[in-house]
Amino acid sequence: MSGVDVAVLGAGIVGVSAALHLQARGRDVALIDRHGAAGLETSFGNAGLIERASVVPYLFPRDPKKLFLYALNLLPEAHYHLSALPAAAPWLWRYYLESAPDRVARNSAALRPLIERCLVEHETLLDAAGAKDMLRKTGWIKLYRSQKTMDVGAADAEKLRAYGLEIDTLDAAGIARREPHLAGAVGGVHYLDPASVDDPSRVAQVYADLFVSRGGRFLTGDAHGIQEAADGRWSVATHEGPLLTRDLVIALGPWSDIVFRAFGYDFPLAVKRGYHMHYEALHGATLARPVLDADNGYVLAPMTRGIRLTSGAEFARREAPPTPTQIDQTEPSARKLFPLGERLDAKPWMGCRPCFPDMLPIVGKAPRHEGLWFDFGHQHHGFTLGPVCGRLLAELMTGETPFTDPRPYGAERFME
Fold first, then answer.
1. How many Å apart are CA 401 and CA 19, to the nearest integer?
2. Residues 92-120, buried b or exposed e (16+ Cβ, 10 A)?
3. pLDDT tens-digit readout, 8-23
């Protein structure tokens, strides 16, 4: 039976980043994933954004008209399964409460240190991997189809200038200068600080390759093979045989509950499912950056495979069969916005976003178990926050002074 200092369970961007940061601090680390490869679940299907401008968490909507339309499943940015509501309702209520102004201010203050370092931590890892050319520093644009929604969006953007962000407010001509192949927007807001990549799964794979090149072990296993060993260590079943480790990091994203519930924790982790589809671009049309159609609830992002259309959130049981109605709902609008050609995927891809009601992750020690550590619940920003949260976790695990106060991300906030 082999052993290591630390085993990180989950090889999405979050787990791989944690493994790299621990390895850089001298820990002997094994990375374990059921696929035996990195970036094949949640990290595979996002818009590729490193969202340096998202200092305010995603909020529960409070507009009565919108809530009514959501209830009828009439808005493309959100969709729900009726069968999922009994289980989801308590979480949705807590999400609603956490979207009150005073709590938004508190949660934004907690999120800000992570967002402010998200890009520089990605740049550090990309540079170490010799892959900094994968980074596209062109920001992203939030488009509006009516002057009414444009005015609201511009006002919201103005509030964010107080955080030192670079933001350009654009009219239709300004949009045309920056993205000449878009049509139908009256204006938009260009957030200049964020960056993006054209294959987020590949970034996770590049980070995993760096980890292995530095002597790390990448093993195949899953969340069901964990036991507390008699000597105080943890035993993890892998295809290569049992692995003993002093410290165990749970970075399983939307599947983290498989582990924490088995050890008696009851955190309010919910799953928002999402979909994407790739399209060819017609007539040589190009996009220089991801673009959000704010009025219709989807993102178009340039990827190596083509133009990726990503959907809004779906509330459904994690293992329920896919229902990619949001792709079908938004595709006609997307075709009017940008010259999309044939679908390039046999079917829409589906993934899951792990979310807590306060839209903050849990990063830190398990309160009741020695050697058990958590790094999950990064909501819509797993790709954004993976490296910076990996740094914070590694600092906590190795006794360094953390770069920011870790208490807002502690598991204890859900155990009071």
1. 19
2. eebbeebbeeeebeebbebbebbbbbbbe
3. 999 999 999 999 999 9
Torsion angle of the four alpha carbons 66, 69, 75, 78, in this order, in degrees rounded to the nearest 10:
80
Is residue 416 scored above 80 in pLDDT? no
* Residue at 274 is within a domain: no
List pLDDT tens digits, range 38-69: 999 999 999 999 999 999 998 998 889 999 99
Q: What integer pLDDT is reported at residue 162 of this predicted model? A: 92
Element holding 23 (H helix, E strand): helix 13-24
Count structural domains, the chain: 1
Q: How many beta carbons lie within 10 A of that of residue 160, not counting itself? A: 17
DSSP code of residue 293: E
Within a domain: 14: yes
> Which CATH number characterizes residue 107's domain?
3.50.50.60
Domain span at residue 407 reads: 1-59+99-135+196-266+358-416
Question: What SS3 string covers 153-166?
Answer: HHHHHHHHHHHCCC
The mean pLDDT value of the chain amounts to 96
- Domain assignment present for residue 217? The answer is yes
